[in-house]
Amino acid sequence: MQYGHFDNEHREYVIDRVDVPVSWTNYIGTKDMYGVFNHTAGGYLIYKSSEYHRITRFRPNGVPMDGPGHYVYLRDEDTGDYWTISWQPVGKPKEYFSCRHGLGYVKYLSTYGGIDASETLFVAMDDPVEIWDVALKNMSDRPRRLSVYSYAEFSFHHVAMDNQNFQMSLYAAGSRYEDGIIEYDLHYEEDGYQFFTADFHPDGFDCLRDTFIGGYHTERNPETVESGRCKGSFENGGNHCACLQKLVILTPGEEKRFLFLLGEGGLAAGRTMRSKYTAEKVDEDFRRLHDFWDRKLSALQIQTPNPAMDTEINIWNLYQSEINVMFSRFTSFIEVGGRVGLGYRDTAQDAMTAVHSNPEKCRSRMVELLRALTQEGYGLHLFEPRWFEPEKSSQSFRSPTVIPTPDKSEIVHGIKDACADDALWLVSAVVQYVKETGDLGFVDETVTYADGGQGTVYEHLTRILDFSARQVGKNGICKGLRADWNDCLNLGGGESAMVSFLHLWALNGFTALARRLGRTSDADRYEALAAQVKETASRVLWDGKWFIRGITADGRKIGTQQDAEGRVHMESNTWAVISGAADEKQGKSAMDSVDEYLFTPYGLMLNAPCFTQPDDAIGFVTRVYPGLKENGAIFSHPNPWAWVAEAMLGRGDRAMKFYDALCPAGQNDRIEIRQSEPYAYCQFVVGKDHPAFGRAHHPFMTGSSGWAYFAATQYILGIRPDFDGLVVDPCIPAEWRAFSAVRRWRGATYRIRVENPDGVQKGVKEMRMNGHPCQKLPPLVAGSVAEVLVIMGHKEA
Ligand code: GLC
């Protein structure tokens, strides 16, 4: 069943049927001010930090599931009938409503009661101002008298203040109205002010939420709108809202446009922004928003025989990956802002995957991670970048009831809290950054350590590699510590196959970097270490058909052929191949087992059969319900690892089978099963051992997106940067006869056409750039355009 369609020409997803099974969200904003909104204008806006500076309120995990939001109510002043442009919260018959999710904006459309209306939400490009662009058209044959009401509920800025200790919060926020501007404040904060205004002089206003809504009413039937009378309410103390009302008369066919602005700062900022954001300026910013995304997406555009893949790579998959890099993981309807700062491993992986479209932000994320590395070489699992900034930007938050900055002793935990994989991801991210940008100088920059002292980026990387070399268990495999990539595999002093393979991958990447830099003795040393890790891993972890997942601290192997539960695991088998630890025969056998035991029509399960017997030597995973999350769900994030592994093994048909199964765009007509939005990867899809098999959960904020993009573009399509050239080495389905791609790399544009006359899955017979044969595409003068022809097939012996 389908609820909407992809409009690729406009880069929008159109929800034609608005009663989707769960909230379908999207993001607005490009830098400091951003927000998450769903298909009914439910959602919230924040400034810089979803923990410290929330602008509008969200009631998480509530009923209804998606409110409040940034709503526009319309009221027919002759009949008293009223509705919201975004369907909810008033909820008139759904046939009259639709929603368009675009890149950085959401547009709500209604055709109710003879009035065509639209509400577009987006954030200005240069100022922390959210724009509500509202348009009305009288489609009836009589003049209409309508009232337009804005409504948003302000939040107490700090998430804890907003959810607890109301004896304090309720008396700390105030509102007032002057000259068409609502001013909201938590005046004890230095930047505690917001304004709400419009491009017209209002006929009425309400600043108090409870006055606007009215006793025993809800957002569905607010008293102010129902009665048609604003009360002009404001006060110091209480809960506050942004309601401005305008009475408008529309003759038949007449159109009118209204702009509402919600921004940082008080009355003075409101006045300045109101005169700045005229209709022309708003149009200009909307065009700039389009150009902003156009520039990013144009870093790689593809045309393949797989339309769902084209939709993902050309639009939604990169968009989702960028959202993660730009805004991190803690602003959604599921992650609602209470967790601090950045997650180490997630941020490192996100930053690795969008370097080509956002080198500056990825680089600054890497610097934030480098600063959160301890001298010993492990990263702080969760941290707030501000703690480690050289010039500490002040945190204006001043409530005596919340301690905003913890002491250093609380920030730097000992090794008991370290996750074994966290910092290893950063090594590969930095290597990837250098390959993409050619910025070799980055590695010699000086960066501090979280627990004092400083060193170059290069030194940081060596400490990470050395840490993992030291942290090995009885069998020489890396310890699992608090967790490895899998949060629920808690091996402590037991050993993790995944971490040893990840270590090997990072060592290989680093060695190549050291060689490129001419640091031969380091390269030799880490190459020798890599050889040792590889030897130990392939000896200890191979189980005859596949690789085991690890060894518990009490010496039991996890994931052997004898195991009744948790027999085959994705992490160890995919990483054995990616790291190069597996030889070809082992790799193929391991990935055949992945296919045999883990494949479903919705993607690959993380492990099978699910655990049912609690076993704390393995970890929390054994206590998770079968089929959910890490216990045998189709955990999306590792799925692309299997695409990489299959591509490395040369099996393009298999890689594409796995790709297609998980592909959200490919599930647009299965929403009765999937439930979640088909334009975003979700954290997991319920696995076979659960009755909700196929239902997807937790959209947008997931490393699945970055990895899906990285694996599909660099390994299936095979277009990947190296230090000295762009490699084109596809691994595609045998039936593909051709595909093309336009890739921007280091300022030049490569127009690549790949032909596959012999129907092979892998292997390049011939490559030409501007007619000349080459092995790799060399870097070119910025601005130049190269025509590349790649012919796949078997090379002559
Ligand atoms: C969540 C976490 C991520 C972890 C994964 C598997 O997505 O954000 O860090 O790797 O779960 O446990």
Provide key terms for this protein.
29% helix; six-stranded mixed β-sheet; 797 residues
- How many individual helices? 20
Oligomeric state of shown chains: single chain
Categorize the overall geometry. Answer: globular
**Largest sheet report:** 10 strands, antiparallel
CA-based gyration radius = 27 Å
What low-confidence regions span 5 or more consecutive residues with pLDDT below 50?
Answer: none
* Overall residue-averaged pLDDT value: 96
Q: Cofactors and ligands present?
A: alpha-D-glucopyranose
How much β-strand is present in the residues? Answer: 15-25%
N- and C-termini, Cα separation: 51 Å
Strand order of the largest sheet: 1-2-8-9-10-11-18-15-14-13
Provide a compact summary of the structure.
With 797 residues, the protein is of the alpha+beta class. It has 20 helices and 41 strands.
Characterise the protein shown here.
There is one protein chain. 29% of the residues lie in helices and 24% in strands. By secondary structure, the chain is an alpha+beta fold. The strands form eleven sheets. It has a ten-stranded antiparallel sheet with strand order 1-2-8-9-10-11-18-15-14-13, with helices on one face. The protein has a six-stranded mixed sheet with strand order 19-37-38-41-39-40. It has a five-stranded antiparallel sheet with strand order 7-6-12-17-16. α8 (344-353) packs antiparallel against α9 (359-371). The radius of gyration is 27 Å and the shape is globular. Bound molecules: alpha-D-glucopyranose. The site of alpha-D-glucopyranose has 10 residues, from α8.
